[in-house]
Amino acid sequence: MTSSPSRPASGAGSSWDTPEAVARVASAYRTTDVAAIRQAQIDVLGPIAGAAIIDVGCGPGIYARDLALRGARVTALDSAPAMLAAVAEEAASAGVTIALADGDAAAIPFPDAHFDAAVLVQVIEYVPDAVGALRELARVLKPGGRLLIADTDWETASWGIGDAALSEQIKRAWCATKEHADAGRQVPEWLAAAGFVISAWEPRLLTVADATGDTFLGHSWPSYRRLLERSGAVATVDLDRFDDLCKETSHRGTFSFCVVRHAWLADTPGGPQ
Ligand SMILES: C[S@@+](CC[C@H](N)C(=O)[O-])C[C@H]1O[C@@H](n2cnc3c(N)ncnc32)[C@H](O)[C@@H]1O
Predict the structure, then answer these.
(1) Is ligand 1 within 6 A of the CB of residue 83?
(2) pLDDT score at 5
(3) Candidate from 126, 137, 216, 220 with most ligand 1 atoms within 8 A of CB, to mutate
(4) Strands 52-56, 115-121: parallel, antiparallel or unpaired by DSSP?
(5) Model pTM above 0.90
């Protein structure tokens, strides 16, 4: 998410580089709703045992762990040191080996044609020069290397809380916290501009039926609320009303949240490996 004025947008000292961000991303991404989408996305990569894969913007390493559990030789790169520390813990507790790399998607610290495959999941929405980052990924991939890129189209988010205007207001404010709120739907054009050839598309709905439970939304919303409140994007009275409606409709069984998560598989020119 975008930084507060006193913090850089990514890297050391950014809002990603805190124990709270590590805990929030790890808990949201461990939920069964997100885990199911992750496994379906990894399936799109096809066989990966023995493949050298770089996970760019790896966060706390849940994705990297799952790639390693399928036998890939994984390098996890992130620009936030706190995230890399969490990856080391995740790898140790899963009993897998994951190499760590401190770096930025805009300047990946590896030579040309170094990896068989790459993953970039829920990262491009935060990267100002999206095409530049994809060109950098193409550089470190071998000819014919595979890129799995996945991101959300936050413009498709909808909250069923019985108040369409308030739901729309929250969506607009949430989207405004993103560098590219509609990254999910922009990815194909960015891939083409960076010279990739798309070979598969895996769109999934992320759905939540209880805003207060152990779900993606349950773990993510409190920090977004703080962000919207701090920035003044939404009045506290409206945020309170939104929270009340989420709780009330969840309790009554009428709450719904859904958003589209896109995943694309693309190859660098050079033919299948
Ligand atoms: C939402 S998390 C995604 C974590 C992981 N990819 C996953 O899906 O489980 C976004 C991560 O991208 C990292 N990030 C953001 N901008 C980055 C950049 N320019 N270079 C490297 N990492 C970046 C953040 O530090 C954070 O760990």
Answers:
(1) yes
(2) 53
(3) 126
(4) parallel
(5) yes
